[in-house]
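Sanity check record (used in CI):
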Amino acid sequence: MQIVALSLSLHQVKVIAGLGTTVDVILRNGILKEGDTLVLTGTEGPFSTQARALLMPQPLRELRVKNAYVNHKAIIASQGVKITGKDLEKTLAGTPIFVAKKPDEIEVLKDEASKVVSSMLSAIKLQERGVYVQASTLGSLEALLAFLKQSKIPYCGVNIGPVHKRDVMKASVMLEHDSQWAVILAFDVKVEREAQEIADNVGVKIFTADIIYHLFDNFLLHRKELHDRQRRQHEAMAIFPCKLRILPNCVFNTRDPIVVGVVVEAGLIKKGTVLTIPSKSFVDVGVVSSLEVNHKQVDIAHKGVEVCIKIEPTGGEAPKLYGRHFDHTDLLVSKVTRESIDAVKKYFREDLQKGDWQLFIELKKIFQII
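Expected output for Eukaryotic translation initiation factor 5B:
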């Protein structure tokens, strides 16, 4: 069996006016003849077609000039050639081309073409969690993966050619783990209508672009919007770690609501924080409904800040009285749980500093959280 292998790096698919879809290749060895049976890798797998015409530019002529090609009956290696033929629009650029000299070689070469592409894709190191990447050629796929690696964005699956239903189903697996990765980055490829419909139904986001940077920017914007939405959804559950010391000369109201000035000794305090007193058998003082610094409303106060807070009773709890249930000698801490800690870790990690995490460890021991 004689196999004519054409260059992977210079193999391109182009639409030329008057010629239709053509493929540009470099003939590395042997002789390619008009009418030879070609085995190529297509968007739906390997296929065969005949080389209808072998075209090369006329000597000393600009390629942009119309009718600048000369048809040849045969091409001898090593040189470039433009080939016309049926179904070439299905060809995946960057994949190998083989020549079948006998009919019984076609199926063998189809298997060989599949193995070459599978080997190339399987050599790409994938992560357990990440985006799904689709590109028009192996070269553009490698370029996109290099950019994602540099940007520290993991990828769990790759493919070349248009986005099909099977690609969406593979990407949808990330919905069970982390929805931010349930994304297909489709670079310079079409998305089949059925694939887009399924993606919309199951919740997979497909981004398409002809420029890598645009694809990257669209994905980052999507991830930020998703993260912001998740933060809003889990804001009530996320209790930040804090230690508060009441300022004895800043007690403005002793009951329902309690209004006192405090200094944040550690961590950070925000609206919605439930405060408790470990030294008084973990009596719940109430929930922080507002904060003021220098008579201005704030959403959060960090370590070292003196802040006036309003504390209202938690649902179902009898109002606590300053001076009876607690006073300025008692340390107030945020009432954290396993669920609230997990919510902070997952959705508000960037809001905490090193000292805040150390306080979390201390509070976990106080509340005996495993």
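The first strand starts at residue 12 and ends at 16. If this sentence no longer matches the regenerated tokens, the check is flagged for review.
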